[in-house]
């Protein structure tokens, strides 16, 4: 039997790392030879979760074809988010909760995507379908994923199924959902020791909207003012990204995980699109977006409507 | 709630028709408003199965966007095998057992593909996962699908899971697997009264392989010579399809369901790809492919390797 590598997307977040570990656990119990790996550095939030549950981080890899011909993708499917040499191996399985795009196989495979808030919610179901018990550690990693992807159930991407799974898993992992959840999310908000360049690229994606090329980065925080105290430095880094990559607009979402609002900091020619999209007035390049926490569901669509 | 239409591929076979009906039954029992439809005429085998279990055929449709915005695909995902206006509706779910290609969505969806021999095998599992009882009729339709796609378990696409499901479903449907299976398969081999155009389009699929556009049709028979007695007529019809649609290669597989070999009849510019792919010499545009019964597992991959 070929050993299969299991991994999530580049710029890994908690769901991508934990789902790789968890699915490897399930597959091993079903008799397969698999190993979870990662495509990038752990963020502070994910490190907190792994430490809490005494779980080792997966091994870092830059390429996979040098060690196996078969891989399993979790939490992504789009080629540009995957390992660089993805085209040189066979994707045997995908477990995901995103749209399907830039993905193609030569042969039939196991593909399981569900429109839920988190990959771990699907994995929890798969343990049940296969009649395999979930250990305390695996429960802890899965509930961490759900808390992370849903910002403790506040994101509009979160479904009833995610919440139910999180409650069930929290009991198995013997944690208090709110207490552990807030501690874990806070661990991801430590910006000391991070350069402005790092802050605007840790979780950043580019989007084509009509003629405009828009970059949207997101930083979670429990203290928006702490982030804003570095406003000039951040604006400088954003302007440099614009100069280097020709973006028409750079939006940095500073998301307060406690009150679930975001502050948008904007640089670029198309700043007024933010004012139109959210019906706000930018002051000093910034505006508060009430109840906005999800880039995918709450920021991209209205901006796209104005620019697209 | 929007009514969702459920359908399989064009040139429908037994699995495509029955899986649409069966998944509609499951979704309805789960409280959804759905209707199974079909994109083409029933073949003799499928008619036999529906008649045997007193099941009405799904309604025929040419387009779907005129009546709904949401659809569910079974037994296929590639755009060119689907309804002509597939790009105008949202695909909410896919239940399939093929490779993924030419498929892309804007939003997350439920996508369930497994590398088994038949869509119905997956559906049988989904009844269990949802705690819904399988009726005698639905069991009959599912076991018919498995018999059809596996050529009574002789195809290499058939897995242990398919066989187990078929045995379980045969008991529920109160049929003798071998007796019913052979009768059903034979019902699909009657070519009298069928034009050459019908024979090459009853079970035909188009594939993009590299730069080449390849059409592969399959006809089951208990008497290969009976089919080959109409060789010139068939070649004429294949050439016309090539002229009309720009295919680079048309392969007609004439599959003997008793001895499990196929004879390939080929027309088009890329005929030599067949010789390379199967290490055979075409004589008079035809060659015997020993032990080949599966288009998906035994014909598409080697052809794709040569052309792709």
TrEMBL record, chains A, B:
It is found in: Cytoplasm. The keyword Metal-binding applies. Residues 181-307 form the DHHA2 domain. Its EC number is 3.6.1.1. Mn(2+) 1 binds at residues 9, 13, 75. Binds 2 manganese ions per subunit. Mn(2+) 2 binds at residues 15, 75, 97, 149. It is an enzyme of class 3 (hydrolase). Belongs to the PPase class C family. This is Probable manganese-dependent inorganic pyrophosphatase. It comes from Salimicrobium halophilum. The gene is ppaC.
